[in-house]
Give the backbone structure.
Amino acid sequence: MTHKAYSRREVLRVAGATAAATLASAALPRVLCAAEPAKTKPALGKARHCIFIWLAGGACHIVTWDPKRRGDAKKKVAGSYYDSVPTAIRDVRVCRHLRRTADLMDRGVILRGVHHDVVDEHAAATNRLHTGRPTSGTIVYPSIGSITAQQLGPGGKSAPAYVVMGYPNASRGPGFLGAKHSYIYLTETTAGPTGLSRPAEITQKRQDRRDRLLAQLRREYLRRNRGDRAIENYAAVAREAQRLAGPEAMATFDLTREPAALRERYGSEFGQRLLLARRLVQAGTRFVEVTSNLNFKNGTGWDTHNDGQLKQHLLIDALDEGLSALIADLDKRKLLDTTLVVVATEFGRPPEFDAGGGRGHHSKAFSIALFGGGLKTGQAIGTTDELGRKIVNRPVSVPDLHATMYSALGINPAKELYTDDARPVPITDHGKAIGELFG
C-alpha cells in the first residue's frame, strides 16, 4: 500500500468541498419541498362549546338513530325492537320514542357508519371514544374534553373550562396534559361542586388574607422546586379552584334560577343535567359531558343484555325529552350555532337477540348524532345493511369523528401536542374531518 502526502492547502480544499456538498445535499429536500403544493388547511368551524351526551353501556343503533325492520325477541327474529317515525330530514327515520327529537332533526346530523375494533370490553371502547386512540403502555392520552379545554381555555371569568356530570373514569382525564386541564366533577344538579364553595363562617376579608399568604408560600415553593411538572400542575389547579370559588361561578350551578316551566320541559334528572349544561355553556364552559347512566330505569342502562331490552324505551324517552328541550332552548337563545351537541356511545348492539331477549355488543357499525355547531345539518351520513350489521357506504372512524368535532370547534385536528419528554402527539390519530359537514 502506498501513501500520498497531501499539502495543508489540498487538505483544506478537499474538506471545504466535502462540507459544501454535504450542505447542498441537506438543502436539496427543502428546495424540492418548496416546489410542492402546500397542504390544504382543514376546514375549521366557529363553534366554541361542546355538550357531549354519553349513553354509557352501548346504545343500540337500530332502536335509536338507524331503525330497521321489526324483529321479535321472543321468537329470536333479528331486527329493531320498536317502530320508527319520519324526521325533519327527508327519507330519514328514527325510533318512535325519539319523536320529539325527530321534528328537530333539520338541526342535526346522524352518522350511521361509525366503527372501531373493540367489542368485548366497555372500558376499552369508552376510552377509544373519549381519547380517539387505543390504550398505550407508554403514554396516557388526554380526553377530547381535556384537549378542548387546553386549546380553547375557559370562555368566561367564572366558568370552568371542562365539567363532567356522571360517573367519571380515566378516559375523561387530561393524560399527559396534566391536572390543570382536568374536569370539575358533579354528581347531581341540586347543588354545585361543594369543593368550590367556602364555609359560611369564612368572610371575604378572611379569605383575602388567606389567599395572600397562600400565594406567598406557593411562589416560594415553586421557586425551590422549579421545573417539577407535578408541583406546577398542582399549583395551577389550586389557582383555578380559587378563580371558581366565588358566588358568581357557583350561581351558574343554581337551577332554581330557571323558570319552573322550562325545568319541567327538560324532565328527569338527566334532563336537568342538560339544562345545567346549557347554563354552563352560557357562562363560558368549553366542554360539558353529561352521562346518561345514573337512573337504570330498565334495570341495565344502555347495556341491554337479557331483560334490559324490554324497557329500553324508558331510557330513549328520557333522552328524547331532555335532548329535544336542549336543542330548542339553545336554538331560541341563539347558542346552537356556537354549541356542538354530540350524542355518543361506546358501541352499538347487533340485530340478533340473545337468550334473555336482549343484545350483545357490536362495534362494526353504530350511530352517533350531532346537532348545531355551525355544521351543515339536516342530513344522515352513511348507511348500513338491511339489519345494521355492516356499513354499506361512508364509514367514519373514531379519529375521523374526533377530527370532525375538533374542526367544528375551530381546533386543527392535526396540531401536535407534546408529552413531558417532548414527544410530539397529533391531536387526532390521523383523523380527517367529514367534509360534507363543512363549507
The first strand starts at residue 49 and ends at 54. Residues 8 and 127 are 66 Å apart (CA to CA). Confidence is low (pLDDT under 50) at residues 14-38.
